[in-house]
Amino acid sequence: LRVSKWRLMTGHAALDRHLETLRCYFLMARGELYHALLESAGPLLSLPPRPATAEADLQAHLSAARVRSGTHEDKLGTRVSIMLVEGCSVDSDAASDGTSVLRLPSLDGWDGVYLKYSPDWPLQLLLTPEAMRVYNAIFRYLFRLRRLHMALDGAWRVASGSPSWHLRQHMAYLVSNLQYYLQIDVIDTQSTVLNTAIAQATDFTELRTAHEAFLGALVAQSFLDVPPISVQIERLFALCLSLCGIVQRTDVEGREACSSQVAQLAALFERASSQLYMILHGSKLSASSRAPSLRQFLLRLNFNGFVARTARHAARVAANCQ
Fold this sequence. Notes:
Order of helices and strands: HHHHEEEEHHHHHHH
Strand order of the largest sheet: 1-4
Distance between the termini: 67 Å
Strand content: under 5%
Structural class: mainly alpha
Number of strands: 4
Low-confidence stretches: none
Radius of gyration: 21 Å
Mean pLDDT: 84
Helix content: 55-70%
Number of helices: 11
């Protein structure tokens, strides 16, 4: 029976094509699709969602983005739909059996954006509700990061030459490197491991074990099951959005008024960045099986030395105050 399921999934059901679709949409391997989506839906996403029309508006933008990015001919891609779940818990995502909780950094009122996928039978045996919960958690995290990155890009065009420019550079650097870590060091690497395991599998149990290990690695290496890390990243998200708001108000309030706000924000951002670094650097995770991922994460965040220097400065200030 296990061999029959394996043959059915890898043959008739075209498991590899469905997993590639999930990678492209839920794990954002098709960056051009989401760039087109966020460019098109930017004005919509800059305002609070309207419950009556928000989901239909997003779906229309997704359909248009497929055409613009050249992905509209992907038949399996049409099985992906975008949803806005009103009143959902945007801060945490728990399994139905309560065994695990993923803490996602919140961004704004659009945190309820999900994706829905409709596979053929018997793929539901592999793509269970719990598996799709993990795919959606990673998607929601990446979607927020991409939105924030584009907001900071927009602020660059306005902030160029102003006191907020350097702060925006530091913020964009952190967000970009967090994206790079998740997309390259985690998703791409683990996708290669999964593809190799599937190619070597000889029955359904081995397929399921490989897929569960893949999803487990995504969660572990994104640290979404470590609340203190997600909480600190959420604080950084909020500070980035605050800078974008200040930049937009510069023409109205004047550069002098905004300069003092930027200075305060810069101090808060340095403190939050150093706190994240210290949480990661001093975490018990460094002695766990996640140590290699933790080192890579730290390397990405501290590639130019800014975060480590800020953390050391904060530690010296704290020591002098004692």
